[in-house]
Input
Amino acid sequence: MAIQVRIPTPLRGLTEEKEVVEVDGGTVAELIENLQAKYPGLKERICDDNGELRRFVNVYLNDEDIRFKDGKDTAVKDGDEISIVPAIAGG
Output
């Protein structure tokens, strides 16, 4: 089951400049592991040393923040779209 993952511009250097990549997985956590296998270095940019999503990285499943669902355990299905969105901070 291939899920489309939208890659933000700052991380596209790791995905051969692709804006959208496809990976398999049944949960967001599995997608992240499979992204790492296919595009080494990606996981460390979106997850901390404990494997949790970095504070300034938001992940959306079909436009809904996974933090309001089951986090990395959020289930995904064929046809879903994941978006990785770096948070913008300013002041």
User: Anything to note?
Assistant: The two ends are 42 Å apart (CA to CA). The domain at 2-86 is CATH 3.10.20.30 (Ubiquitin-like (UB roll)). The mean pLDDT is 94. The first strand starts at residue 2 and ends at 6.
